[in-house]
């Protein structure tokens, strides 16, 4: 795969200035992720207010240009385009419930974005992310590696945080992944998880109790349920997803070759093809440079295929 041409100055374009898009812009600016950050939103007053608010903090962040507006031209020449715009998930709604409206929006905005940013890597951060990513690949005609979704990067972070808290270790010493759909059919890959090099299934505990099957089931349920709890309490998830998306963007712009559970189109991955799901993948300036054939238990393989079947059924429902 050939990497897109990179310039000395990096530009990030964020489509959607809602809770996720504006938080993502804030996170990217405070981390110095890109030298230029552009916000695009159909609500001109809202996006201009967000840009002004961000500009007022320029004294306290790494040097960067902050622009925005309701004209797609603000995205011209972007190295990375992140799409956060989509229907807002309401309390009680599943991510799949949002599919039709968000796919329609993707059909409208993607061709315009491709005109002004033809060499960009496109990252979808809008739900249902796996279906939207599959649709975006079909609509754009770009190589699959250049259009991918944020997937279960945040879910994997939630999983690691819960394991670390239970076991009394630093989260950086936990290596564990959530795979499959970013949604109700996602699954933790317990068989390949480790804590400081110790297989998680062999963990006996130091300051805390061992991770028995009951605890693992509770943690997995909490990971899936956490977004619903946040939405019920405050109306949207934004902080953690903004940080997770920023981490993905940095892996692209800094050519990090980092392993992240982003959502991309799989081809014969443990027998799964023609569907976008999250698996541990190498992310660098090419986008998704490859996926890792993580060993799976029989149960994990069965559940991952069931997750794929669920996504494929939704794709067919919407003619994808």
TrEMBL record:
Q: In which pathway does it act?
A: Fermentation; pyruvate fermentation to lactate; (S)-lactate from pyruvate: step 1/1
Task: Give residue ranges for domain Lactate/malate dehydrogenase N-terminal.
Answer: 10-149
All copies of domain Lactate/malate dehydrogenase C-terminal, residue ranges: 152-313
Which residues bind NAD(+) per the record? Answer: 16-21, 41, 46, 86-87, 125-127, 150
Q: Where is this protein localized, as stated in its record?
A: Cytoplasm
Source superkingdom: Bacteria
Q: Which UniProt keywords apply?
A: Allosteric enzyme, Cytoplasm, NAD, Oxidoreductase, Phosphoprotein
- Give the enzyme's EC designation: 1.1.1.27
Q: Where does substrate bind?
A: 89, 95, 127-130, 155-158, 237
Entry-annotated residues carrying Phosphotyrosine = 228
Top-tier EC class:
oxidoreductase
Activity modulation notes = Allosterically activated by fructose 1,6-bisphosphate (FBP).
Coiled-coil stretches noted in the UniProt entry, renumbered to this chain: none
Q: Which residues form the active site?
A: 182 (proton acceptor)
One Pfam match, given by its short name, reads Ldh_1_N
Q: Which Gene3D superfamilies match?
A: Lactate dehydrogenase/glycoside hydrolase, family 4, C-terminal, NAD(P)-binding Rossmann-like Domain
GO terms (molecular function) for this protein are: L-lactate dehydrogenase (NAD+) activity
The UniProt catalytic activity note for this protein reads: (S)-lactate + NAD(+) = pyruvate + NADH + H(+)
Please give the CDD domains that the UniProt record associates with this protein: LDH_2
PROSITE patterns of this UniProt entry?
L_LDH (PS00064)
Main location per the UniProt record: cytoplasm
PANTHER family per record: L-2-HYDROXYCARBOXYLATE DEHYDROGENASE (NAD(P)(+)), L-LACTATE DEHYDROGENASE
Its annotated function is as follows:
Catalyzes the conversion of lactate to pyruvate.
Q: Which family does it belong to?
A: Belongs to the LDH/MDH superfamily. LDH family.
Name this protein carries in UniProt: L-lactate dehydrogenase
The scientific name of the source species is Xylanimonas cellulosilytica (strain DSM 15894 / JCM 12276 / CECT 5975 / KCTC 9989 / LMG 20990 / NBRC 107835 / XIL07)
Organism placement in taxonomy: Bacteria, Bacillati, Actinomycetota, Actinomycetes, Micrococcales
């Amino acid at each position: 795969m050939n990497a897109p041409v990179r310039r000395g100055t990096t530009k990030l374009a964020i489509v959607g200035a809602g809770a996720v898009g504006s938080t993502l812009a804030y996170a990217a600016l405070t981390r110095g992720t890109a030298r230029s950050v552009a916000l695009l939103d159909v609500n001109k007053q809202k996006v201009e207010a967000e840009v002004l608010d961000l500009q007022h903090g320029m004294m306290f962040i790494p040097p960067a240009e902050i622009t925005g507006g309701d004209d797609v031209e603000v995205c011209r020449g972007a190295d990375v385009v992140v799409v956060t715009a989509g229907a807002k998930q309401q309390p009680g709604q599943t991510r799949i419930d949002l599919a039709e409206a968000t796919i329609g929006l993707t059909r409208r905005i993607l061709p315009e974005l491709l005109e002004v940013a033809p060499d960009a890597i496109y990252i979808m951060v809008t739900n249902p992310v796996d279906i939207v990513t599959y649709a975006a690949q079909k609509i754009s005609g770009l190589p699959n590696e250049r259009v991918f979704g944020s997937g279960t990067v945040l879910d994997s972070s939630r999983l690691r945080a819960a394991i670390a808290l239970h076991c009394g270790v630093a989260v950086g010493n936990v290596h564990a992944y959530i795979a499959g759909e970013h949604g109700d059919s996602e699954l933790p890959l317990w068989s390949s998880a480790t804590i400081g090099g110790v297989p998680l299934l062999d963990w006996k505990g130091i300051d805390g109790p061992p991770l028995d099957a009951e605890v693992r089931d509770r943690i997995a349920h909490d990971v899936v349920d956490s977004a619903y709890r946040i939405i019920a309490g405050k109306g949207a998830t934004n902080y953690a997803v903004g940080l997770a998306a920023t981490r993905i963007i940095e892996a692209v712009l800094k050519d990090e070759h980092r392993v992240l559970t982003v959502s991309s189109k799989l081809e014969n991955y443990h027998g799964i093809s023609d569907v976008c799901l999250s698996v541990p993948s190498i992310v660098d300036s090419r986008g998704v440079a490859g996926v890792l054939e993580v060993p799976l238990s029989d149960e994990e393989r069965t559940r991952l295929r069931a997750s794929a079947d669920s996504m494929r059924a939704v794709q067919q429902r919407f003619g994808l």
